[in-house]
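TASK: fixed-backbone design
INPUT:
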């Protein structure tokens, strides 16, 4: 396993209360090397909390997270992160933003620029390197953020609802692009979404979470005979979609 959660629990202190709030409870989850895993669940079930633990920005209350068998003890260059809102530096061009991570890795200047250009090409933004974020559309900014994470060449790409703020067309084209990049680079990707379609379309496996406390309810294997053509029109797509929808609906019903 590339990534392993073992009995991971995360609690937060609650103001004016001695009892902490348990956001994640006994999470056991493995992500295989090179796998595209999507994680879906209702708002507030702990998806971002789980991803934060994986980045190493926060530590679990109990349990352990391992990457390549090594416990996560803080942020590392092996992991790249893409958030819902493009976190670009407004004073840097698209190219400058992609180069940023490479500076942190002390890649020589010339190589940096070539690498950054190659990754802008990869996300379909060749020719836009000189634009500043305010001169780009939302979808283009998100592409820059993805290019920046990829240029960094992390083993693992962690994505927290990266396409949520985009319109349907842009989202679909970025989903396709991300799949293409994943196939090409073989990176391990953990992708959070609350969109069932998005989870089924992108994931080789879909982990379905439940809330209060956040748990992994079921992990569903998604496989299609062929990825050619309109996957969403495949009857299997509808079956997976329905299975996840049912799990999530039971979930909402049990909370209400
Ligand atoms: N720093 C924090 N302090 C206290 N409670 C927190 C903190 N971060 C998250 N929580 C709580 O933990 C729970 C899970 O939050 P989290 O952001 O992980 O949910 P989520 O599944 O990502 O939701 P969404 O789909 O809305 O993004 C929520 O109830 C939230 O209020
Ligand atoms: Mg979240």
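OUTPUT:
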């Amino acid at each position: 396993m590339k990534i392993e959660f073992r009995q991971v629990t995360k609690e937060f202190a609650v103001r004016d209360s001695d009892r902490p709030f348990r956001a994640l409870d006994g999470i056991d989850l493995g992500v295989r090397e090179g796998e595209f895993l999507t994680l879906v669940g209702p708002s507030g079930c702990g998806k971002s909390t789980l991803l934060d633990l994986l980045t190493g920005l926060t530590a679990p209350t109990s349990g352990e997270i391992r990457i390549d068998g090594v416990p996560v003890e803080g942020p590392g260059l092996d992991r790249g992160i893409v958030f819902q809102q493009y976190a670009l530096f407004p004073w840097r061009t698209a190219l400058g933003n992609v180069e940023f991570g490479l500076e942190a890795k002390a890649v020589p200047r010339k190589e940096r620029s070539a690498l950054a250009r190659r990754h802008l090409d990869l996300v379909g933004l060749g020719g836009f390197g000189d634009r500043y974020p305010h001169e780009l559309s939302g979808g283009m900014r998100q592409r820059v953020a993805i290019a920046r994470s990829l240029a960094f060449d992390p083993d693992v790409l962690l994505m927290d609802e990266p396409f949520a703020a985009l319109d349907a067309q842009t989202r679909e084209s970025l989903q396709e692009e991300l799949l293409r990049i994943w196939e090409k680079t073989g990176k391990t990707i953990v992708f959070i979404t609350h969109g069932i379609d998005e989870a089924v379309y992108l994931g080789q496996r879909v982990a379905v979470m439940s809330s209060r406390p956040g748990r992994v309810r079921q992990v569903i294997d998604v496989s299609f005979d062929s990825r050619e053509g309109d996957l969403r029109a495949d009857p299997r797509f509808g079956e997976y979609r329905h299975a996840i929808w049912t799990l999530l609906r039971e979930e909402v019903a049990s909370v209400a």
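COMMENT: The two ends are 36 Å apart (CA to CA).
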